[in-house]
Model the fold of this input.
Amino acid sequence: MWLLLALLQASLLPAQLCEAPEQGAAVRVLSSRLLGLAMDPARDPDPSVYLALRLASDHNLQEEKHYLGRLRDAFQHRYGRSLQAAGQLHAAHHAQDAVATKPNTSAEAEWPETGRLALYLLGLRATCPPPEHSHQRSLVTWLKYYLEEDWSGSRRHGHPLTSFYQYGLGVLALCVHRKRVREEVIRRLLAAEHHAKFRHGNGSATDTEAVVALAFACLKREKLVGAGLAAELREAKHQVKKRMVEAQSEDGFFGNVYSTPWALQVFIATNTCGTHSAYSKAMAALLENLDAFSTAATMAQALPALHGRSYLDIGSMHCEEELDTLTPIDPAPLPIDPAPLLEAWGNMTVRLVVECPEPRCHQGRLYDQQVPAPAGASLLDVLRAAAAQGDFTFETQETLLGPYLTRVLGLEAQQQKRSYWQLLTAPSTSLQMGVAEYRPHDGETLILRLTHW
Ligand code: B12
Done:
């Protein structure tokens, strides 16, 4: 009887919420640094940066408002005409679950921007006070349209044109806006989760698994699916967490340092941080490695979990209780000409190898040279030094995460064919950062390999 009463009482208690970690000061410094980077007008506004500022424990409301304005300008400008067309489309259909017919706009032939639009919509939902519905309605319709385009573009292959990560973000954003999606859309994610299709080449699947698990958690919480599907989502979410815990590394990470914050969000969103020692171990590992988050994009992905928040909290912002106390830390000013500084540290030599295992390349190894560079130089600097040496060419494309290597020796990695230039250190360790962030050491061999994912 007593046992029964105790059980009843426990079931009536509110679920234990996830607390922000003890080392609040270090996390606050990271938030201040992100704010400093956000205030730099030379940087393109990024919705995940805005989300990280909004999900923090303290704020700079003036600067957040200013950043939102910049985001609006960028996205309004980006979608311009198409937004209007989508608005008309929405009015014509009136359907709550409109699967948008292809609008005749200039954006027609473009690659679906599922992930970026999803993040922007999540950002809009995080504003205080919430923005007007009319502004969001057409964006929601566009996101639904992108989800369909994303899938139909590669239906034969059973994966979205962009990636399951972006597809998961799309479903998550619609859910946080309490918009229903067709059951089939959710089933695509369930099937992919079931058949372990989230790995990108030989990279880790953790980021994607976590984003998809967040989408599942949201759909269940918002009761946007029927009982049968809800049970399947609960089971899938459980499996994702189980796999993460089983694969947790000795040093505490889920996947690597950059995917760990996403995994932590899953524990936070499902209120299971208190019951899993894996959670505290991973949080401790993250707090010991805050230096790894040196770019605005990686900081933005890490901060929500470090503040004990998940993207599901976007749906229930407490506008009245926000502390307006965050001050920016200026990003370290770059020396006018870094070359003399680097030279003062001495020189190093790096071996640069280019491999193309594809049939279109007559020989597998296309380049193999020693490249002298100043010590402390980034891989990007090494590539520039190799180009200056002659016989080597490369191109990068600016992304929110920094420069992305797109072409080497005239060979372009093709998005449509899911090929990319993978960065490795010999013998075969895939780098965990991009060309601008990675700093090779003297004598290291770096491999650029055209790979499929
Ligand atoms: C999907 C994905 C890929 C795909 C991208 C292609 C595609 N069509 O989607 C592939 C498999 C090609 C890829 C490659 C790489 N990736 Co990747 N990728 C991701 C993932 C899972 C999702 C990215 C995304 O869609 N974001 C959402 C959209 C809306 O944002 P976006 O800015 O428009 O996204 C584009 C860029 O992010 C770019 N991109 C993808 N990865 C990387 C990595 C770097 C360093 C840069 C500059 C750009 C970039 O491709 C995206 C799609 O166009 C993230 C996970 C995460 N936590 O962010 C990892 C992630 C961004 N990748 C990472 C890494 C390390 C790489 C590689 C450097 C791995 C390697 N050793 O070669 C390479 C990039 C090499 C190069 N050529 O410059 C790290 C970056 C960590 C960091 N310090 O910044 C992440 C965070 C994964 C992780 N947990 O370690 N990636």
